[in-house]
Amino acid sequence: MSETSTPTTWLTQEAHDRLQAELAHLTGPGRQEITQRIDAARQEGDLKENGGYHAAKDEQGKQEARIRQLEHLLRTAQVGSAPASDVVAPGTVVSATVNGSMKMRFLVGSREAAGTTDIDVYSERSPIGAALLGKKKGDSASYTAPSGKELSVVVDAVEAYAG
């Protein structure tokens, strides 16, 4: 995979539907609500000292950024289950042992795919995600944690994320 290519994000049908509904709300009623708040704040007068107006404009910017993020994600995501594989890749759940004692279980991929489940999620570009991509059960790797500490990890199991 080249540095400029976008990794595949696997979404369950439930996650896709949830994100599609969020996008529909943000581009419909959400935009109308923020426009009304901006208009109401504008009616209050001097915009330089109008905290409500500036707060609404900031919220509008964040909302538009989220809309762009959702549009990109939904346009590029693969819907369904990640292919069954014993190789660590986006859309797989990894069970691993760090430094010989700490057990971890996490999804390699996007927080969006995990939704409201309590599974930990690490991007494939995170230090641990990047170190484990392409590894199989029994393989080991090392990576530098954000704290600067060098950690070793052994893959105990790999399974497709079922959501």
Number of domains: 2
How many beta-strand runs? 7
Strand-residue fraction? 15-25%
As laid out across the biggest beta sheet, the strand order is: 5-4-3-7-6
Main β-sheet, in a few words?
Answer: 5 strands, mixed
Short description:
This protein has 163 residues and is of the alpha/beta class.
What does the model show?
The chain is of the alpha/beta class and 163 residues long. The longest helix is centred in the N-terminal third of the chain and has 30 residues, at 13-42. The radius of gyration is 21 Å and the shape is elongated. The strands form two sheets. Strands 5-4-3-7-6 form a five-stranded mixed sheet. The protein has a two-stranded parallel sheet with strand order 1-2. Helix 1 runs antiparallel to helix 2. The chain has helices at 13-42, 51-76, 111-114, 127-132, and strands at residues 10-11, 78-79, 92-98, 102-108, 120-122, 140-144, 150-160. It contains four helices and seven strands; from the N terminus they run βααβββαβαββ. The protein folds into two domains: 10-79, Transcription elongation factor, GreA/GreB, N-terminal domain (Helix Hairpins, Orthogonal Bundle); 92-160, Transcription elongation factor, GreA/GreB, C-terminal domain (Chitinase A, domain 3, Roll). The model has no long low-confidence stretch (mean pLDDT 85). The chain starts with 9 loop residues before the first strand and ends with a strand. Strand 6 and strand 7 form a beta hairpin.
